[in-house]
Design goal:
Layout (H helix, E strand, L loop, with lengths): L1 H4 L7 H27 L1 H6 L2 H28 L10 H30 L24 H16 L3 H40 L1
Length: 200
């Protein structure tokens, strides 16, 4: 880790922008989703929880595109690590990138748009928590798939800055998971309890 820091200019504006977008995005969607869950303001404004969820999902997608752009710009403006500049390492990065894409896309198809973009905070619940691939082999595959994407992208660019930013992505996602998981587990526990009560 100390060796990687020697390649990084911490005052470079592109690096600062990347750090800010990485930290901001999960904070934004969690704050907005919890606010919606408590107040239903977005659902009332759009007159539909589905439309409100779709709009929030589009904003999150745009923010994620911005994060990826800032991540890439930060890598391009910082020095490369010579030891990573070889075909074998590039291929490793490509494999990681492909693996991450598989996790992200399969998670999206398993959850659907509203399941991916915090529909449970809008009262849009699935019949039960998804346990099919990739959720049967990895918890939170959307987050970890995204992290693997960034790792692969950083390795392909032989970028110490990219590797350090990937560590930040992982840490931010760990915090987000610790914040989100209890809520998701509780709402599906409540739904199961209500369903069980109705059957009696």
């Amino acid at each position: 880790m100390t060796g990687l820091l020697g390649y990084v200019d911490p005052f470079d504006p592109s690096l600062v922008a990347a750090v800010l977008t990485i930290a901001f995005n999960p904070l934004f969607w969690n704050v907005v989703a919890r606010w919606e869950q408590k107040t239903r303001k977005l659902s009332k404004f759009f007159r539909s929880p589905y439309l409100a969820c779709y709009c929030l999902g589009c904003v999150i997608l745009l923010l994620n595109f911005l994060r990826s752009y800032c991540f890439t710009q930060a890598m391009l403006k910082q020095p490369k690590m010579e030891v990573l500049e070889n075909p074998a390492t590039y291929c490793l990065g490509l494999v990681l990138l492909g693996t991450g894409v598989v996790f992200v896309l399969s998670s999206f198809f398993a959850l659907g748009f509203t399941g991916t973009f915090l529909g449970d905070y809008f009262g849009i619940l699935k019949e039960a928590r998804v346990t099919t691939f990739p959720f049967n082999i990895l918890d939170n595959p959307m987050y970890w798939g995204s992290t693997i994407n960034y790792l692969g992208w950083a390795i392909m660019h032989a970028s110490p800055t990219g590797l350090l930013l990937t560590v930040l992505v992982a840490l931010v996602y760990v915090v987000a998971i610790l914040y989100e998981e209890p809520f998701t587990a509780e709402i599906y526990r409540q739904k199961a309890a209500v369903r069980s009560h109705k059957r009696r």
